[in-house]
Structure formats: structure tokens, C-alpha cells
Amino acid sequence: MPENKVKIKKNLEGTVVSDKMAKTVVVLVERMKLAPKYRKYHKASTKFKAHDEGGEYHIGDRVLIEETRPLSKDKKWKVVKLLAKKAEGAASSEADLPADHSESGMRNIDDNTQDNNAGAEDDVAKETN
Questions:
Q1: Residue 19: exposure state from Cβ atoms within 10 A (0-12, 13-18, ≥19)
Q2: Residue 79 sits in which domain range?
Q3: Cβ atoms within 10 Å, residue 21
Q4: What is the pLDDT of residues 4-18, one digit of tens each?
């Protein structure tokens, strides 16, 4: 008599980073990994394509995904449930901005040219005296 084997499905928790595909979301799963030589932990991440039948999950949502049969070449996971929804009215932080456009480091180009011209005028004044 054949015995029914129950396969234990893996569950992972991650953040939706893309919802542009039809019925599919890309979920970023981060974990702490031990470097064997140095015995230090570092952050490692993997992106999984997961099935989203209703298109109800969007960028920034925390979701739980579960392993399933292959649904396509890359899609072998499905979204089980929403853990936390991204706040709609949340203000963007400096971390969301590109490194070269941080608010504290922005400077007008005209300010640079005025500073450079002022220094040149001082040098000319010193030479005439």
C-alpha cells in the first residue's frame, strides 16, 4: 500500500520590490549570513518571483510567500498573505534619494561660480596693491 508523503513547503518573508508584471510580484528576501572565515554576519538578499492572482500586492508591502509547483520558468512561489502594508502618505526619507541628490549636499551651480569669481577678484586686487 503506497503511503501518502506530505511535502513540507518552505515559507519566506520579504518585501515586494516590483509589481509591474501581470499576476506576478518580485519579492526581496533578506537574511543574515555567516562568513565562515571571519565569523561575522553580513546581509544577503535574494529576489523571488511570486504568483499574485488578484494583483493586490504592491511595492513596499511585506508579504509571506510559500513554495509551490513551478508556474513558469522563474516563478515557483506564491504569495500567501499580507503581513504589513506600506503607508500611503509616508514622506520619503533621504535613504530613498540617490546619493548625489541628498538634500544636505545640494548646491546651486551659480553659487559655485560666484565663489570662484570672488576669489579671483581678491587675487587681482592683491596684485595691484
A1: middle
A2: 11-86
A3: 12
A4: 888 888 999 999 999
CATH code, domain carrying 47: 2.40.50.140
d(CA 15, CA 27): 5
Instruction: Give the predicted TM-score (pTM) of the model.
Output: 0.63
Write the CB contacts of 93 (distance below 8 Å, at least 6 apart in sequence): none
Question: Biggest alpha carbon distance in the chain?
Answer: 108
Rg from Cα positions in the chain: 26
Q: Does 57 reside within a domain?
A: yes
- Give the span between the Cα atoms of 128 and 66, in whole angstroms: 79
Q: Is residue 101 part of a domain?
A: no
Q: pLDDT tens across 86-104, in order?
A: 877 654 444 454 444 444 4
- For 97, phi then psi, to 5°, come to -80, 150
Q: Amino acid identity, residue 73?
A: K
d(CA 64, CA 79): 6
